[in-house]
Structure formats: C-alpha cells, structure tokens
C-alpha cells in the first residue's frame, strides 16, 4: 500500500495519497440548487475518511437546460457559490483537496426548475428508463435538438461555472463528459444524428468536448487544474461502444489535451474491462498511452485490487465510488487494515439522498 498512501503532486496541488472520491449525485441540495450543511457534513466525512481528493457530484452550469435532477446543486449564482465555499472550507480543514464536477444533463433530464424541455444533440431520448432513485419519471422526454445558440449557451455556462468554482475555492474542475450526459451525448452515435459541424464524423462529434474544455481553460487561466471525465457507456446503456474503437478514443483524449485539459478521468464498469469494438485494450489503458495528460481512473476499484491497479497505472489517481459509499472512511480503513464493507443499495432507497443514507445507517448500526 505504501506508494498508494504516499503524498504526491497532481498538477500543481499536493495530495496526501492517490485516492479520490468518485463523483456521486445525491440530490440533497436545497430546491433552488444551493448546497447546504447536510452536504458539507457529507463531503467532510470522506475527507476525514482519508480520501486525498474529493470530486463533487455533477453540478449544473446554467439557468437554461443543464439541470437534470430535482435538488441537484448548481454553481451559477452567489448563494450557490457561498454554499460550495462552506463545503470547500470543510474539506480543506480536514486535509483534502476538492474538485467540482460540472455537468449539463442534456437529454438525460428528469427535473429542471428553469425549463420543462430538455435539449440534446438530436431529438433522441436515452435508452431504458429514467433513474428511479433520482426522481419519479417513468419515461424519458424527447429532447429538442440544440441549435448553435443553444450550444453556445451551454459552452458559456461551463466557462462561467468554472470561474464561479474558482471563486468558491475549489482546487480544480472536472468537466462531465461521461455517462450519457450532454457532452457524452454529442460523442455518441446513438444520440447524435446531427448533420452540422457537431455531428457525423468523430472530429465533429467531439467538437463540444473540445469547445467546452477550451472555454473552461480560457476562463480559469493556465494554472488551475482542469480535466474531463470520459466513458463509452451511459447510465442506461453501459455497453455502448464508440464505433471508432480504441484509436477513436485516443483521438478524443489527445484533442481535449490540446484544448487545455490537464487530466482525463476514465470510467467504465471495471477499470480492466476490455470493451472497445476492436482489440483488447481498456479505456484507462488507452488514456494512459497518451503523453502530456494526467489520469484519474475509475471502475470497481476496491481493497483487493487497488494496489495492482496503482502499479499498472503509475501516477494515476484511483477514484472510488461504491466502496466509498459503503465505507466513507475506506482509505483510513485500508491504512489500518480494518474490515471494509460491501455496498448495500438500500441506503440509496427510495431516493439517493444523504438523509435516506443517514436514516439507513442509524437503522443498521450494529
Ligand atoms: C449514487 C451514485 C451517483 C453517481 N453520480 C455520478 C455523478 O454525479 N457524476 C459522475 O460522473 N458519476 C456518477 N456516478 C458514477 C460513479 O462516479 C462511478 O463511476 C461508479 O459508481 C463506478 O465506480 P465504482 O465501481 O467505484 O462504484 C454515480 C454513482 C452512484 C452509485
């Protein structure tokens, strides 16, 4: 475990170890998107539990169509910035660093206080059903296809939210380009049927990822860590594959690097899943080959495999989701050689709120 627990520099920030809390939506902000003290306690718990880096849940970026869930936090006004500042201060006081994840829901839209009409690359809804633990919708709405003004609004929202995140004291920005949200929808041939310069070829489909990365970089300046989370699959279609395969994915990573990304955060069902249409590489494996960009990796990392994965990807941060939910002090437990629990999804029922989790913990306390 030694190197995993050693302090390191990631970009220009000092981290106490290589563990990151994976971004996890908890729909626990105030109805107007303001982060609250329940969330501050929640994020502080993971910092105290040893996670060197905390990555926040997906946070919406404009007052148009970016919000996807009721009680999702935003970062678009002064009250929201202040709410985040409290959380940032609490995480810093516990000795960890914190990035915010900026997210535009696009077609994966279950609730939005500013509009009833989702926007997406084309008039195509996600596969499957909406997520029951985030809302009560039974079917996806069909989004309107974004025109070039809508696209510009979305890009500007990411850029302004990045400025707001810097003002709130965050240590870096993660752009959400994964899991079927807007940027990922543009990359996807399921969602994107456009015939303008944002659709068709891979170069066109990745244009939004590149434009947003470039705009965020320009907005925050050179020395502020900026990265993007990327996946092939989505929350309701985890087996989706890019038709352009591993070489196509490499092109995306190179393009976001050239647009100003310092790191890419790959996420797949499992870090070691070989899931390109061609060859036997992994998402993280391809990203690791690209020079000049740092790496955060995610997917089924636990106490049994973390050391091997860390050895496989020197210098990469390991982002942990389910094991962290089950053990907010996962890193401390690992250090102390203590027992580590498996996730019990009942803690996220009937909704994935922090208060439901706390009630479940109380009820199930030994
Ligand atoms: C309750 C819950 C909420 C999640 N919310 C987000 C999110 O807001 N942004 C994101 O990029 N991924 C989100 N994810 C995905 C996780 O970050 C992670 O990729 C996934 O759980 C797989 O990692 P794991 O095997 O370590 O759990 C969420 C996962 C869970 C379980």
Verbal overview:
This is NADH:flavin oxidoreductase. One of its GO terms (molecular function) is oxidoreductase activity. It comes from Marinobacter confluentis. The protein is an alpha/beta fold and 366 residues long. The chain has a single domain, classed as Aldolase class I (TIM Barrel). Helices cover 34% and strands 16% of the residues. The protein is built from 12 helices and 12 strands. An 8-stranded parallel β-barrel has the order 3-4-5-8-9-10-11-12, surrounded by 7 helices. α7 links the parallel β9 and β10. α2 crosses α3. The protein is globular. The relative contact order is 0.14. Bound molecules: flavin mononucleotide. The site of flavin mononucleotide has 21 residues, from β4 and β8.
Which features characterize this protein?
366 residues; 34% helix; 12 helices; globular; alpha/beta; binds flavin mononucleotide; single chain; TIM Barrel; two-stranded antiparallel ribbon; 8-stranded parallel barrel
CATH-derived architecture? Alpha-Beta Barrel
Distance between the termini: 29 Å
Could you tell me the CATH topology label: TIM Barrel
Q: Main β-sheet, in a few words? A: 8 strands, parallel, barrel
Summarize, please.
By secondary structure, the protein is α/β, with parallel strands linked by helices.
